[in-house]
Amino acid sequence: MLTEDTISAISTPLGKGGIGIVRISGTLSLQIVKRTFASHNGNENALSVSHKVYSGKIIDPFTKKVIDEVLVTVMKAPNSYTKEDVVEISCHGGMAVLSKVLDLTLKEGARLALPGEFTKRAFINGRIDLTQAEAVIDIINAKTETSLFNTVSQLHGSVANEVKSIRSLLVDVSSKLELSIDFLEEDVPTQSLDEIKKTLIDAKERIESLVDSYKSGRLLREGIKVVIAGRTNAGKSSLFNLLLKKDRSIVTHYHGTTRDFIEEDLLLDGVTYKIFDTAGIRSSNHEIESEGMARSYELIENADINLLIIPASEDLTEEDIFLINAINNKNKECLYVLNKIDLQQQVDSKRISEISGIASEKILKISAKKNIGINYLKNRIKQLITDNQAGLDTGKTVICNVRHKNLLDRALKYVNAAKYACEKKASEEFIAFDISKALNCLNEITGRFYSDEVLDKIFNEFCIGK
Predict the structure, then answer these.
(1) For 82, which of 99, 314, 357, 433 is 20 to 30 Å away at the CA?
(2) How far apart are CA 433 and CA 44, in angstroms?
(3) DSSP E strand stretches across 94-244
(4) Does one domain contain both 263 and 342?
(5) Nearest by Cα to 217 from 393, 74, 364
(6) Are residues 256 and 330 in the same domain?
(7) Among 203, 132, 224, 154, which Cα is nearest to 397's?
(8) Whole-angstrom Cα distance, residue 81 to residue 63?
(9) Among positive and negative, which fits the CA dihedral 119, 121, 127, 132?
(10) Strand 7-10 vs strand 17-25: parallel, antiparallel, or unpaired?
(11) Torsion of CA 365, 368, 372, 375, to 10 degrees
(12) Is the whole-model pTM more than 0.85?
């Protein structure tokens, strides 16, 4: 990337708004704005002091027409977001004025910024590491307070600091190994293989802790997938609408009304739950309905929690028993929900438990129509998550980025190989080789070295202007 270029972009969401911002970064930033800005008080030294806001007008230097009254904020290098000269022009938030101001900056020598290029420059110029750059997009996309807390923690260096701490352990061992290898004939202090193994075990456990946190981190970042499943006319759509407190799914007494899944977000105690209403399971030769059921099976397979809805007012059917056993046999996390308890009951918890061996605490009774047992159901859903994801809301370092997890998995493989080499009293060169490979993986996480392909993939997810 040519960081000598000066870049410009609209940094606020497109559309109408009270304020819109055009951001410029690079060596020409101040010159560009000076040629288009007139201070309200006629100050010839306007824009000369860093970290100060100046009021005035943006004037088209070609037509001499006033474009807008603005506030201009100057942040001189290196004390700016990109560590370059940065100027932000705060205009009225209409697309016409923002587009015109942006166009003027481009005519005066800037080029349009690429997606994420401001943050990319912050990384390349050493203001932030790669984990912190990735946290920026996660903060923008955060939907809940819990997710926001985790990503802000990453922006402040929680992941980077833990990775650097692990790296420090391995660097210390690696340097002593290299010293021992290079000065084999000399009387230099070395570490025993038992001491090296002890350090590797420490590094291994800390890497494993980060890897184990990924499941919690993924749930924070993507939301917890809750799939409402069951046979046709079991009350799935009624429960879906009740949880969301709006009529999102069509509810009728006809079988097979829902032909495809419907997805909506539900916020419970600062955590996003992605709720899926699925097509009912039954024998059908209808092509569309069959495709809907195939998608239902796929969602059930990939769910974090399944809610299997069984009508308590009807006897168990082959579809009910098939789904109960299928979910139970695959050890999928599930709550078995007896719906329609406001009607005369034909099946109870005891019978389901006898058929499948399901623990009674996994079987709940509700009436979606009468809003009975719904709060208890929500609490049980939350409890399943907090019981199984101890790190979800504890404030400990949690990784939520699949790139980090993959690199940590690779680092763990090399640390385990080095530990095994110690146990087998292998040559120090083999141990040092595996440790160096583990260090490479850790260095990739924080961006101590990187490829352009990786950077492009990361920053292409950003919006233009950030």
Answers:
(1) 99
(2) 62
(3) 111-112, 224-230
(4) yes
(5) 393
(6) yes
(7) 154
(8) 33
(9) positive
(10) antiparallel
(11) 90
(12) no
Give the tens place of pLDDT for each residue, 205-239. Answer: 999 999 998 888 887 777 889 999 888 888 888 88
**Helix 402-423 with 193-212: angle, nearest 10 deg:** 160
Q: Is residue 452, in this structure, part of any structural domain at all?
A: no
User: What is the number of structural domains in the chain?
Assistant: 3
Cα angle value 441/442/444 (rounded, 5°) = 65
Residues 321 and 355 in one domain: yes
- Cα four-point dihedral sign 181, 187, 193, 197: negative
Say if strands 363-365 and 334-339 run parallel, antiparallel, or are unpaired: parallel
Q: How far apart are CA 223 and CA 338, in angstroms?
A: 26
Same domain flag for 271 and 347: yes
Q: Where are the extended beta strands (E) located within 151-279?
A: 224-230, 262-268, 271-277
**What does the alpha-carbon distance between residue 58 and residue 72 come to, in Å, rounded to a whole number?**
10
The whole-number average pLDDT for the span 380-386 is: 83
| Identity of the amino acid at 147 | S
C-alpha Rg value of the chain to the nearest Å:
29
State the Cα–Cα distance between residues 290 and 296, nearest whole angstrom: 10
Residues 114-124: pLDDT tens digits? 999 999 999 99
- Token couple for 309: 């809805």
Range of the domain at 39: 7-128
CA diameter of the chain: 89
Residue pLDDT, tens place only, 7-43: 999 999 887 788 999 999 999 999 999 999 999 877 7
SS3 338: strand
Is 139 domain-assigned?
yes
Strand (E) or helix (H) holding 58: strand 52-59
Q: CA–CA separation, 229 vs 226, rounded Å?
A: 10
- For the chain, what is the total number of helices (H) and then of strands (E)? 16, 13
Within 303-390, residue ranges assigned H as helices are 318-329, 349-356, 374-388
The pair of structure tokens assigned to 358 is 């399901």
